[in-house]
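Thread: "does anyone have the structure for this chain?"

Original post by V.I.:
We have the sequence but no experimental structure in hand. Need at least a predicted one for the grant figures.
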Amino acid sequence: MPGSERQMQPRADHGERSYKGCDRLKGTAALITGGDSGIGRAVAIAFAREGADVLISYLNEHEDAEDTARIVRESGRRAVTVPGDISSQQHCEQLVDRAVKEFGTLDILVSNAAMQTVHQQPDEWNPEEFDRTYRTNVYAMFYLCRAAIPKMRAGGSILATTSVQSFQPTGQLLAYASTKGAIRTFIQAISELAIKNGIRANGVAPGPVWTPLIPSTMPQEKVKQFGKQTLIGRAAQPAELAPAYVFLASNDARYITGSIVDVTGGEMIP
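Reply from O.Q.:
Generated one for you, tokens below.
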């Protein structure tokens, strides 16, 4: 955990060959946590092909991060990779400072990285594990927003990855699911504050998505059935999530803030 993109079978589709941009983010700069793989990689590729420079924040998956950066650069945009633990306030503040230093601006913040563990009983989550899940998934978002909002220009956008789990939580994902509920509430609350600076804040709620987090944290039998409960009958590929992030970050969504866009394959959200 959190797993490597290179070790996945089958490999995920991040839009490397399929995503075509049309300058919807031209001249902007983005910071994406968890940008080395999964949804974060797909968003980084899509943003780059829409004209954004990208800072890729990741934990320690150096090869995956460099693969993402290479694709961003081949798309004609700048890529900066920064390893480190986003559960640290200091590291989150350094990420924001690095993005501004490298690009001269920070227009888009994508709080996407997450920790997930699977257990069968509540006492199987030890307090340290539960605390780390919240620090990675929730506290990091707070640290990043706190540091970024004063430095972002009007017209900027904050995006958070929540989940269908925030609406339909699974007991075996107790820690993760409850953080995703917190993320949904946080992004809706901070939208009221961020808009005072001309910054919109929205969330994307994916359903099942084929990312390294799945085979690295779930039992093999669960992995085999992953996503089959959706109306579409399969898990999403990361490339199928990226357009939602592009839309919300772009001027096309200039009248949208405090919203959660679900991309769930037909899993009904109340």
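V.I.: this helps a lot. The chain has one domain: 23-263.
O.Q.: and The chain has a mean pLDDT of 92.
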